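Predict structure. Chain length: 216.
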Amino acid sequence: MTFRTSGLDVSRETSERLAIYFDLLLQWNKRINLIGRGTIADIRDRHMADSLQLRPFLRAREEAVDLGSGAGFPGVVIAMMLAEQGGGSVTMIEATAKKCAFLREVVRQTDLNSTDFSVTILNGRIEQAFLNARVATLITARALASLDMLFEMCADAITGETRALFHKGERFQEEISAAQKRWRFEHEAHRSAVNQQSVILEITQLRRRSMDEQAT
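Prediction complete.
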């Protein structure tokens, strides 16, 4: 299985891991609801490609935390790309125990944990599990919550050199405007290579507005 997103090919090693992941996703989805049945045919061109397009944004030895990982998009795919670079870590936070079991099986069968790279699966509510996560250089989430709610989940983490990459749909501008009522932040919208109506929203320098600022 060969993948190509935004003109980028993946290595043979990553391609093989994606093939294993794809097969496991099909098998497990028969028993637990990992992705919508109507999107199974779109796994490669939608879910995987949507995650693979984050590759140009990944830095060397990234310490990534993926919120609400679900079936592993983009957390598992980020782990594969970082493992290919030879260093860093990914922590995936997921509230459903069965989905965590699936993620652990994917990590095991794709041999993602190594001396130079590690993957951690945390089962629990994001707000609590985030406290047990590694210090992050990157925070990601896909199809999880509004921008305002995402900020509430990781309010103190997107500071300094740490940034967030959030997949957002065509109403992303409305989400930005709503979030700006309670938060100050820098942002850049990168047009999605998978859906021209969607973006990868890059967030930095997040800070909560004071009550006086919110009132004006």
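Summary: Residues 87 and 116 are 5 Å apart (CA to CA).
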